[in-house]
Q: What sequence folds into this?
């Protein structure tokens, strides 16, 4: 007798993953590959992907994940993806082009955006080329052959669900990233559509995370090992699904350590910052909101430095060498973002004493990288606390970056908070997708996985190191 499971498609900034999981979040099989991007020569800072190639990649990964899981029937499918990424659709539903979150083809027209404060009040984020409306403006201004065919657009996760079900919808947490959505009103904004000159007819009907989008297309049943009654369930943005994996409560703080590092607080009401330093989005659970500050591409920095210093070793080797260090030998500033700073750093690096210390090792550089991440998290945490208080003695954490016990300890030390993680923290967005499927299939919540915690230590020592990090960051800010 075949076991029943669900399939979660997760399209991140760096890689595409397809996972087969139980409804309780137990991973049965997972396959991943890098997402293939191309540069667009018509813009100074743009990148895109071919949706047809990505779909074939998803099907190939699904087959690999099913091979690992062996003997399962898939009852439900859902998807999650990078925020701000979109796929443009033609009048017949054809996929025209994919624009990831790292596509900034609208940057040349950022200064043309009027009433930016009003945009922030409605959309919950200060307008920039990161968001979908700006990408559409870039297409309209320089890719007329695509614009003339454009009928609609969806987030990448909603596009995956469209390919699975045939239904075109836009989920609320993903719609929050478009600059065309009224976050407080939970609807598309005619005022924002007019401001960006986007036809409201291009905006698909909205859908709520966890609702049934429809049955799986019959043509995919055999290829995806689906049960005859298999359904497609609306997922959501990867950050929000990662948050769901921790099963936090309203007013909890959560750190999601992935390619970037959002630091969020779950809210039961719409809150924005008078200084426009934070984002507010719809959550995928209930009627709650996500108040966010983001430390930027921290996880990507760590991954790239691992490839330089530890190309053939696992993270366990890194942690062992970090534990053996007697003291730090260098300090880093690697372009992490701080909500209080309007301009991002354009230069970064490591600072250490000269002549080069004898006990400077590769672990010294990795420790400095983790310290840079932890300090950036503290700065953004402070911004969130300035907008809304945080009285709990703990903060939740999830995502692949949290496999570093050193990073967890540094965060605990800097925030003077316990850092809590669930046992399934590594595949957090996939686990969040499994929980969404479980609620629809079983009508109930899963029992929370076990919790591990890290206690803060040695406040005085790490406060001094934190001041040194701030001085180092100031040095690189002066370098043009």
A:
């Amino acid at each position: 007798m075949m076991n029943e499971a669900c399939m979660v498609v997760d399209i991140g900034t760096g890689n595409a993953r397809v996972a087969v999981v139980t409804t309780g979040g137990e991973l049965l099989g997972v396959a991943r590959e890098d997402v293939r991007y191309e540069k667009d020569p018509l813009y100074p800072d743009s990148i895109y992907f071919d949706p047809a190639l990505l779909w074939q990649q998803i099907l190939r990964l699904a087959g690999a994940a099913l091979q690992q899981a062996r003997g399962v029937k898939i009852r439900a499918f859902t998807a999650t993806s990078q925020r701000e990424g979109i796929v443009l659709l033609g009048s017949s539903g054809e996929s025209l082009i994919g624009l990831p979150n790292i596509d900034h083809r609208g940057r040349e027209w950022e200064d043309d955006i009027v009433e930016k404060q009003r945009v922030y009040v409605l959309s919950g984020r200060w307008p920039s080329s990161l968001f979908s409306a700006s990408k559409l403006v870039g297409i309209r201004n320089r890719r007329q052959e695509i614009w003339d065919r454009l009928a609609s657009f969806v987030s990448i996760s909603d596009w995956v669900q469209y390919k699975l079900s045939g239904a075109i919808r836009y989920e609320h947490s993903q719609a929050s990233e478009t600059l065309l959505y009224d976050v407080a009103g939970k609807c598309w904004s005619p005022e924002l559509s007019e401001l960006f000159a986007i036809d409201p007819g291009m905006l698909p009907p909205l859908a709520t995370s966890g609702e049934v989008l429809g049955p799986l297309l019959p043509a995919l049943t055999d290829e995806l090992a689906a049960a005859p009654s298999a359904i497609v369930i609306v997922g959501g943005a990867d950050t929000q699904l990662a948050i769901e994996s921790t099963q936090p409560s309203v007013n909890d703080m959560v750190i999601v350590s992935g390619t970037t590092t959002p630091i969020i607080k779950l809210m039961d009401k719409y809150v924005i910052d008078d200084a426009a330093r934070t984002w507010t989005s719809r959550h995928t659970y209930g009627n709650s909101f996500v108040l966010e500050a983001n430390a930027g591409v921290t996880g990507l920095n760590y991954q790239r430095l691992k490839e330089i210093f530890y190309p053939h070793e696992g993270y366990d080797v890194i942690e062992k060498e970090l534990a053996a260090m007697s003291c730090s030998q260098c300090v880093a500033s690697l372009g992490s973002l701080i909500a209080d700073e309007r301009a991002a750093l354009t230069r970064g690096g490591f600072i250490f004493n000269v002549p080069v210390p004898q006990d400077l090792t590769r672990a010294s550089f990795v420790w400095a990288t983790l310290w840079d991440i932890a300090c950036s998290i503290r700065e953004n945490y402070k911004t969130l606390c300035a907008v809304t208080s945080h009285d709990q003695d703990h903060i939740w954490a999830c995502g692949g970056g949290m496999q570093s016990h050193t990073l967890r300890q540094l965060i605990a030390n800097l925030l003077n908070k316990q850092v809590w993680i669930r046992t399934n923290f590594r595949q957090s967005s996939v686990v969040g997708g499994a929980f969404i499927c479980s609620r629809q299939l079983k009508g109930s919540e899963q029992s929370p996985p076990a919790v591990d915690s890290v206690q803060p230590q040695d406040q005085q020592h790490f406060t001094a190191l934190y001041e040194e990090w701030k001085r180092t960051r100031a040095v690189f800010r002066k370098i043009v």
Summary: The CA atoms of residues 334 and 460 lie 24 Å apart. The chain has two domains: 3-234, 243-480.
